[in-house]
Amino acid sequence: MPARRFQFVRPLVAVAMVAGSTLYAIAQQPPTPTRVRGTIEAVDGDVLAVKSRGGEDVRLNMTRDVNVVGISKIALSDIKVGSFIGTTTVPGPDGSQNAVEVHVFPENMRGTGEGSRPYDLRPNSTMTNATVADSVVGNDGHTLTIKYRGGEKKVVVSPETPVVTYVPADKSDLKPGAKVIAFMKKLPDGSLETSRVSVGRDGLTPPM
To answer: Which residues form the signal peptide (predicted)?
Structure first.
């Protein structure tokens, strides 16, 4: 190889090695959490202080147009064929998909997040938002066939599985002691901001 060409290639190799090591380092970093689950410790103006379920103290700056929704308990029998639901599932030993929780969307939220994706509630859990196509009642609860664009699942919902729905709420429901799930993002200055908070009604802990 001519000397001049060799001198040109060496910097490119060095750049490629640095880029590769940088990408590897990024890949090794844990993903930034996108939600915090916990209990409100205090509300100071637009700042929400939350004690996470893991024990961390989290301060969230609420946006001016923060969307607050309530979460209320309903019965398993309230899940009907045609309902649009979200459900967190984990695989059972027999390969079935067992529901950890089910939330029934009101009609004005139909289609929200339709599809199936990994979820962070439990190890190996999946969140699926879909329409109930069939419901079979058995001795151990209901087996739901749910369909979404591009797929379908059979989900086993036991009598002990928490079933909830969304109800109207506002910032006045964000009080110390309330259980919440706050969706958050990290700002350039390192602070955390939330534009959406789900709050349990009547002492309920949102199960999702």
So the answer is: 1-27
> Per the domain annotation, does 207 fall within a domain?
no
Report pLDDT digits (tens) over 146-173: 999 999 999 999 999 999 999 999 999 9
Residues 6+ away with beta carbon under 8 Å from 88: 99, 100, 101, 119, 121, 122, 125, 126, 127, 207, 208
Calculated CA dihedral for residues 37, 62, 188, 17, nearest 10 degrees: 30
85 with 137, same domain: the answer is: yes
Q: 73 with 134: CB under 8 angstroms?
A: no
pTM of the model: 0.80
For the chain, what is the domain count?
3
Do residues 39 and 51 make contact, with C-beta atoms less than 8 angstroms apart? yes
Mean pLDDT of the chain: 87
> Which residues are registered as beta bridge partners of 104?
85, 165
Calpha distance 168→198 (Å, rounded):
10
Do 19 and 57 lie in one domain? The reply is no
Tokens of 118: 């990994």
